[in-house]
Amino acid sequence: MSAPGEGFPYSPLDQESREIRILVLDPGTSGSRISFHLKTASFKNERHFLEYEALSYEWGDSTRDKQIFIRDHAIEVRENLWYALDALRLPNEPRFLWIDAICINQNDISERNHQVQQMADIYSQASRVLVWLGTATPQSRLAMSHLRKLSALLYDKPKPSVGQMARSPQKWAALLNLLEKSYWSRVWIVQE
Q1: What pTM did the predictor assign?
Q2: Which of 6, 56, 140, 146 meets the CB 3.0–4.6 Å disulfide criterion with 2?
């Protein structure tokens, strides 16, 4: 077993063509083996460009790793990324994702620096950016429900009752807990 970069089968990227790697997540059901392969796409060559989603995620505990597989090569990723991949894969078709920890050869300083320079394009060219803060808990479900209601106050008609929302300290505490996650303090979060 190894982390990406340590014996991981990366092929070089062409920096002139502004290439990136896209993780093609194999179909599967929750809890089954997570497997994938990598494809190369180029911002310069639209014929070789794949539609993809970019994943931004809470890193989580670095001491709790889980295995995913590229072909038969096992690699370890942080547990929170494993849970994200398990939840995001589709049952009957592949899903195309850009994930920094896997799509960038973290041990190749030149590649890593070049990919970091392309981050704004990587995120802006994604069909959408997915945010994974961790597996759902009763408190996170309450926070997300509260966020939807707050959003409705701004955008929906008719508007929900502000009085009902103000009298719900549990919802505000859940929302505060969500906003205190380390994800929001990451240096790259604004760019992502």
Answers
A1: 0.78
A2: 6
